[in-house]
Amino acid sequence: MPAKTFAIANQKGGVGKTTTAINLAAALAQAGLPTLLVDLDPQGNATSALGHEKVEQGSILAAVHDSEPLAGKVIQTRIANLSLIPGETDLAMLEAELTKKEHYLHQFKKHLSPLQEGGAFKVLVLDCPPSLGLICMNALAASDSYIVPMQCEYLAMEGLGQILNVARGLKEAGANPGLDLGGIVLTMYDLRTNLSRQVEAEVRKHLADKVFKTVIPRTVRLGEAPSFGQTIFEYDPFGPASAAYNALAKELCARFSLQA
Ligand SMILES: Nc1ncnc2c1ncn2[C@@H]1O[C@H](COP(=O)(O)OP(=O)(O)O)[C@@H](O)[C@H]1O
Ligand SMILES: [Mg+2]
């Protein structure tokens, strides 16, 4: 079975993509699924949040630019079953690099497929940058499904429409006919505010089953953990955010029949 590949995507910054990518990937790894997290953001937040450094020539950029095998960039994290392809600052050049390539939408697919097919991993999680540019499109073109973290805020639905349209466009253009909305996860959820509840009701009304039952609560712990280079399971193992990301991983496994 090839690894199931999920792009964590939303063109908006600060909505919880990276937080979801690392903690969901860690939860899946802890559940016994060999998981590869790929940092696709030039800021390298996923890399540093796991306590790793950005690595020059160590990201997917080197694979695309120099046709180096991507398998050589995989590093093992201290978490069992969790591997990482780190980011690097020069990833910012990747978008320009991609425009020069033939089959410019399928560069990630080309380089990721040996890792998807190789049998070492059951899940790939791609942490996308906050834009709908070529990096995100390449990630979507290389994925089975995309997961949209959504902050419960004003105009959240509008932003959601944009990414759904881009994904639909890719699908209809034949770039990835099987691409599927894997789910929407509500992040930074605050039960005490009307806004969180209103946004939740609206999203569930329109997208029903696509919205994960699990919501990720707003908690300062999630904001603090990255500065210690730790996942939430290391930083606050018994807190609500750990429980939420474990529950999200469980839901995802059930939805996609993923088994350790
Ligand atoms: N549920 C949450 N509660 C509180 N802070 C959060 C939560 N999720 C993310 N954060 C914080 O919000 C900021 C943006 O989150 P991040 O995951 O980096 O978003 P993105 O990758 O979409 O830009 C970060 O400082 C992060 O630590
Ligand atoms: Mg991010």
Instruction: Give the helices and strands as they follow along the chain.
Output: EHEHHEEHHEHEHEHHHH
Number of domains: 1
Percent in strands: 5-15%
CATH top level? Alpha Beta
DSSP E strands, number: 7
How much is the average pLDDT? 95
* Coarse structural class: alpha/beta
Q: Fraction of residues in helices?
A: 40-55%
Q: How would a crystallographer describe the biggest sheet?
A: 7 strands, mixed
CATH superfamily: P-loop containing nucleotide triphosphate hydrolases
Bound molecule types: adenosine-5'-diphosphate, magnesium ion
CATH architecture: 3-Layer(aba) Sandwich
Structural features, described:
This protein has 260 residues and is an alpha/beta fold. The chain has one domain: Rossmann fold. Helices cover 41% and strands 14% of the residues. A seven-stranded mixed beta sheet has the order 3-4-2-5-1-6-7, with helices on both faces. Strand 3 (75-76) and strand 4 form a beta hairpin. The mean pLDDT is 95. It binds adenosine-5'-diphosphate and magnesium ion. Magnesium ion binds next to helix 1.
